[in-house]
Amino acid sequence: MPEQEKKASEARYKLLVEAANDVIYQGDPYGNLLFINELGAELTGYSLKELSGIHFNQLVRDDYKEQVADFYLNQFTEKIESTYLEFPIVKKDGTERWVGQKVSMLKDNKDLRIITGFLGVVRDITEKRAIEKSLIDSKNELEKRVKERTAELLEANDRLQIEVEGRKNMEKYLHESKKEYERIFQNAHDAIVIFRSDDERVLEVNQRACKLYGIDRREFIGMSLEKISTDIPHRKSLIEMTISRKDYSHFEIDQKTPSGKKLILEINALPIVYMGQKAILSINRDITKRHELDKKLEMEKRQRITSLIDGQEMERRRFAKELHDGLGQMLTASVHHLRKIKRLGELSKDQQKILKETEEMSQQIIEETRRISKNLMPAVLEDFGLFSALQNLVNSISDISPAVILYGCETTPRLDKEKEVSLFRIAQEAINNAIKYAKAESIEIKLTNEPQRIILIVTDDGKGFDMDTSRTSPSNGLSNMRERAEIIGADFTITSTKKTGTEVKVILIK
Fold first, then answer.
1. 146-178 tens-digit pLDDT
2. Which of 11, 69, 264, 457 is the most exposed place for a label (fewest CB within 10 A)?
3. What is this structure's pTM?
4. Which structural domain range is residue 462 located in?
5. Neighbours of 90 (CB within 10 A)
6. Which of 286, 308, 342 is the last residue of a domain?
7. Cα angle value 416/417/419 (rounded, 5°)
8. Helix, strand or coil for residue 138?
């Protein structure tokens, strides 16, 4: 068979192996790696050179090494054609990933009793295991879906058995290579679509693509992508990006079946030449259920946070009322009693001094109690809105803080109670952080009322903090501000530089 045709076959085989969403490797009878694709290096963090020749068990987490070794020793000694096993590996940087591994035996072409090595197909299932755990913890009824998904993965892996034949007979090698190419293409777990890059007409699809879109292969070939698109301009821009990059493009896109069913797909696209035509190889993974799950988990999270914050606000109101109606009135009564003592008779100078100081101290306690009560739940917020409440907050803090507080705000329309409370609490937290932790000398609060949105900005000239550290270990204050913004659907950003200051910005669409 011509050498050129052999090379073309090898190129197609290599392209499919490298474009696959799974790690594919070949090992000798003892488990040493002879070949692994680029995705294997990406998954493990080691270079292809570092992976070459090592025993695959070196990557397995210590507490699983013996179990994994025994499992594959049993496959070797019992000559089991194909096995599947899930276990954790340790990457070069020390982090762990869970993988599902399908291993098939490779046999000598002349004597099938002789095992020449193993062929492995490895998939990163870390996210799947995390989702399974989350599903079990949150909703038991979702266990069925997880099991179905796991069964699909096992079924797909069972179909992806790769056989590598010897190269002594070129005719046989070319025939087997073509057959293997077709087998992997048709039985891949993900949908594969090859289409012309100029007019977006489909040139080839695999069985999974036909099943995913609900389109017969004969109808699929030659069909325009417009039939399954939900946003044509967006699709065209992604195709242009893929062509211009001349490399893999990874993105998510919304599509639909001819029946109208919505699909959310994770796409790996690559410009290729197929049958002499400029084309794009698109490997499409259906992540619709994962998006629905993520959306449901996010909704549950928001509900929990909303309930927590509502509880906090109720407790603030209760405590503020008790301070005002209980302690405040008792302190006021104490001041009246002190004043009565003055009128009972003559007092010595020392007694008069002590009485005066006690009266002044009681009055200060009354004022402080009122200030705390207003901060806990300012009546002006409920009566007059956010603008007046922020002005009152600035005035009360300015009386007791050495920092200079500038208030440049515009009058805003009344908002939903939840939105006004959240914006007020964010501003209150930002000001308190600037005074207490940043030791700011100057703080500026801006409230801007635009036609479509309201913008709240709190800046200070304090000592700032390390943004990278705050992302990995966020404080309760930062988390509370961010959660309050999320609940009301506002965009929250915080920027800070050491020794320069901090800016908290909230954008609320009306």
1. 577 666 645 655 665 554 444 444 455 445 555
2. 11
3. 0.38
4. 380-510
5. 17
6. 286
7. 65
8. helix
